[in-house]
Amino acid sequence: MVSRRRSTVSPRPARPRLLKGAEVGIVGTGQIGGSVVRCLSRLRPDITVCAFDLDTSLGAKIRPFARFCRTLEILVRQSDVVMLAVPVQAVVRLLPRIAKLAGQRPSRRRLIVCDTSTVKATVVAAAVRHEADFDFVGLHPLAGTEGQGWEAADAALFKGRPVVICPAGQRAGRVARELIGLLGGNPVAMNPRDHDRLVAEGIGLPHILAFAAAGMGTRAVGGNLLKGGSWRSLTRVAASSPAMVAGFLHENRDHQLRVLARFKKDLDAVAGALRQPAVGALERQLAAWQRRVTTTSSGRG
């Protein structure tokens, strides 16, 4: 359970250097944004944390960890770093509003904006149009689970996990790396287009398969009692928000369609092997795929 995981967080986290005295504003307090809030709240008073969410009823739950802002405008005006922990389409819509507010801030620090969405190329392209107003860093924490909302937030969520960081200006990049370190994550630099291509295979495809498998009916009376650990592993992420998943799949549709086309060929190969009178063709196909996994894993080790 989440409560047990929180007990593993170190009571003496690293202290900020570049972010010392800064105010970090989190827009969106679901699992990712809420986990950032919980984690950074341990660094007070070195860092001030504020948060905004369209669900204002969360204010009472968030206030023990951060100052809750009633509007996005209030948050941006008082922040040195703004993290957009919302779906990719929402990030793109918010960037022009943030650009207008950036010049109204009393802080002398140039505003840094980052996002945590699953797709990066679209966001980076949209942020470039506002480079005169703020510095932008694209982030993608590879740490989320199928949990949803503030209740799924965990201060230890990012501990030891990779966090993709897209190319950024020198100062913004240094600040982003320190922020990732304070969250307990490990920064991994990546080109936005390469990132999205890999997301289609490593994140998009598993989500599609999970939802499709979970949606399969069964003719067994009382349900299929043989749906055990393998089935639960396959369908785990089908508990994710359909709106969130549909958002990043559609935004990354060109890469996703190519991955689905390749996967369909693999499924057709299995179907063809199953139609053979002997098991040999199927065994050879499975063994070939297994060798790919073994080779890839040993190459990365």
Number of strands: 8
- Largest sheet, order of strands side by side? 3-2-1-4-5-6-7-8
Helix proportion range: 40-55%
Classify the oligomer: single chain
**Could you report the average pLDDT, rounded to the nearest whole number?**
90
Describe the structure.
By secondary structure, the protein is of the alpha/beta class. It has twelve helices and eight strands. The protein has helices spanning 2-6, 31-40, 59-62, 72-78, 88-102, 121-128, 170-183, 192-214, 229-235, 242-251, 253-274, 280-300, and strands at residues 23-27, 48-52, 67-68, 81-84, 112-115, 135-141, 162-165, 186-189. The protein starts with a helix and ends with a helix. The chain is elongated and about 75 Å long. α8 (192-214) packs across α11 (253-274) and α11 packs antiparallel against α12.
Summary?
The chain is an alpha/beta fold.
Features:
49% helix; alpha/beta; 301 residues; 12% strand; eight-stranded mixed sheet
Indicate the topology.
Elements (H helix, E strand, L loop, with lengths): L1 H5 L16 E5 L3 H10 L7 E5 L6 H4 L4 E2 L3 H7 L2 E4 L3 H15 L9 E4 L5 H8 L6 E7 L20 E4 L4 H14 L2 E4 L2 H23 L14 H7 L6 H10 L1 H22 L5 H21 L1
Parallel strand pairs: 1-2, 1-4, 2-3, 4-5, 5-6, 7-8
Antiparallel strand pairs: 6-7
Helix pairs in contact: 5-6, 8-11, 11-12
